[in-house]
Amino acid sequence: MNITRIALAATLALALPLAAQAQQAKLKVGLMLPATGTFAALGTAIENGFRLYVTEQGGKLGGREIEFVKVDDESDPSKATDNVNKLVKRDNVDVIVGTVHSGVAMAMARVARETGTILIVPNAGAQAVTGPMCAPNIFRSSFSNWQPGYAAGEVVGKRGHKRVVTITWKYAAGDESVAGFKEGFAKATNGQGQVLKELSLPFPNVEFQALLTEIASLKPDAVYTFFAGGGAVKFVKDYAAAGLKKNIPLFGAGFLTDGTLEGQGADAEGLMTTLHYADGLDFPKDKAFRLAYAKTFKLQPDVYAVQGYDAAQILAIGLTATKGDVKDKAAFAAAVRKATIDSPRGKFTIGKNHDPVQDFYLRQVVGKENKPMGVAVKGLADPGRGCNM
Ligand code: PHB
Q1: Minimum CA distance residue for ligand 1 atom 8
Q2: Residue 38 in contact with residue 301, Cβ under 8 Å?
Q3: Measured distance CA(295)–CA(387) in Å, rounded
Q4: CA-to-CA distance for 152 and 275, rounded, in angstroms?
């Protein structure tokens, strides 16, 4: 080898790693969502929304091509730690996105805290995730269970209902949704409202009959409920079949009627719920999103699709600020905290505890849509109780 060749080889050896750096490796996103069970459709909608945003960005966020690794979490908390460890330790994902079920999300948050992996929660409202377990690397694109519950409590109280029964699944999401409801209801009734009974059954059971009989005998002014997915479809149908719908108004966190109206049919007509999304909001972003979603997936989007889309937006904001480096967690968090996210739900920001600060709509079911009736609570922030960050 002559001198020029040696020099050339040396130059190449130096230059190659630089070129390789400029051409960053793909960013591995671990999607941990339910693909089976009562929340399966919710998992699909979240994934669709997430993928739609990535596709709109040409397959790259913060300059890095996105690669997906998927795990079906089955909405089963007992398998959650193993499932999230598969993504973080076996597949070496850079970011985790998930999930729907609060109990599973708490296990994910524990692993995210231990390993420092960025976690974006695209649904589960567990208070702990943005409360005592809050961390600079944990974000939520959805809501805390308290938020829609609180908004519904204000609505029910302001409508003059005084004696209420609540019914839900006995797990973090149900308990916290009812706690939020009670707070809003107490505020709107100046402490005069009464919760006659808090009924519940284990997740994901749908044997509602005995509980519906109890509601009939208690004769409350109104019922508040948290159910979602397949369980919500069955509850709404059973509530009507038991003859309760015509006598006792049923209110819910909006999950009761979101992504479920095909299955519920006429039994859902007229139901009123509170949520951070509705069908037919008058935002250009929403119109564009709904058109693109329907075209791509041959389906109408729902709140879960929006939350998936916005989880990808949050990831994009963080990665753009760090030029694709997930290790620069301080810069990632700083960018997300100061962003205004242009969501199909309307613009929102991320609060100090990394939960969305957002408007809650009162919606009413008309045909196959949750029509917005107005804003129930504007700019509602989760109290972030127990979060020290
Ligand atoms: C939850 O477990 O936090 C949860 C599940 C389904 C929903 C909303 C919240 O639609």
Answers
A1: 124
A2: no
A3: 41
A4: 9
Q: What are the distances in angstroms from CA 291 to CA 42, 253, 371, 385?
A: 19, 26, 17, 38
Pocket of ligand 1 (CB under 6 A): 39, 100-102, 123-126, 145, 173, 228, 255
The closest residue, in CA terms, to atom 3 on ligand 1 is: 124
- CATH domain 146-275 topology: Rossmann fold (3.40.50)
Distance 152 CA to ligand 1 centre (A): 16
In the chain the first and final C-alpha atoms are separated, in Å, by 60
Peptide bond into 320 cis (omega under 30): no
Name the DSSP class of 276. S
Q: Give the domain 23-143+281-354 fold.
A: Rossmann fold (3.40.50)
Q: Can you say how many angstroms the Cα of residue 228 is from the centroid of all Cα atoms in its chain?
A: 12
CATH 3.40.50.2300 residue spans of the chain = 23-143+281-354, 146-275
In the numeric block, which tokens belong to residue 203?
Answer: 């997740």
Q: How far is the CA of 172 from the centre of ligand 1 (A)?
A: 9
CA separation for the pair 218, 225 (Å, rounded):
16
Q: What is the pLDDT along the chain (389 residues), one digit of tens a residue?
A: 444 454 544 454 455 444 444 467 999 999 999 999 999 999 999 999 999 999 999 999 999 999 999 999 999 999 999 999 999 999 999 999 999 999 999 999 999 999 999 999 999 999 999 999 999 999 999 999 999 999 999 999 999 999 999 999 999 999 999 999 999 999 999 999 999 999 999 999 999 999 999 999 999 999 999 999 999 999 999 999 999 999 999 999 999 999 999 999 999 999 999 999 999 998 999 999 999 999 999 999 999 999 999 999 999 999 999 999 999 999 999 999 999 999 999 999 999 999 999 999 999 999 999 999 999 999 999 999 999 99
Placement of tokens 């059973």 in the chain: 238
Phi, psi of 49 (to 5 degrees): -60, -45
Residue 371 pairs with which residues in a beta bridge?
A: 364
Token representation of residue 25? 């490796």
d(CA 241, CA 158): 28
Q: Would the pTM of this model clear 0.90, i.e. be above it?
A: yes
Order of strands across the sheet that contains 95-97: 60-61, 64-72, 27-33, 95-97, 118-121, 138-140
